[in-house]
Specification:
Elements lengths: L2 E3 L4 E12 L5 E12 L3 E6 L10 E6 L8 E13 L4 E8 L4 H15 L2 H5 L2 E3 L1
Length: 128
């Protein structure tokens, strides 16, 4: 299956703090993890524990960005998840919810620097 992505995904290794919430906005779990890839629309997160059943859908997150960038706080929706038995990690696909202007610009600036230029960041890409 070929899927057209709106934004280019960039491989990263960025620490993240997550608060996973259920549909009633109640805290289910709080954890640190790693972001494996990132784009303006979402990210792939790895967490060091097993979520038996992923019923929670909301995440509050804090991205600890490298200098000269600052920390970014935001919210997202879990779109997919699976348990990686070999590496003992839960992997989650997160869709980013709209942010205030300042954090959004900070994330865009980081991604532009990682991508090399603004056009590369917004190019549609094809993936299998």
């Amino acid at each position: 299956m070929i899927q057209r992505r709106k934004f280019t995904r960039l491989d990263v290794d960025i620490p993240i703090k997550c608060k996973i919430r259920n549909h009633r906005n109640e805290l289910v779990i709080s954890s640190s993890g790693k972001v494996a890839n990132l784009c303006l629309g979402g990210m792939h997160i790895s967490l060091p524990f097993r979520l038996i059943k992923i019923t929670a859908r909301l995440i509050d997150y804090d991205l600890n960005l490298p200098n000269p960038f600052s920390e970014i706080n935001g919210h997202g929706i879990i779109r997919w998840g699976y348990w990686d038995e070999e590496n003992w990690q839960t992997h989650l696909g997160l869709e980013l919810l709209p942010m205030e202007t300042s954090p959004s610009e900070e994330l865009e600036n980081l991604l532009i620097e990682l991508a090399g230029d603004r056009q590369a960041l917004y190019m549609n890409t094809l993936t299998n």
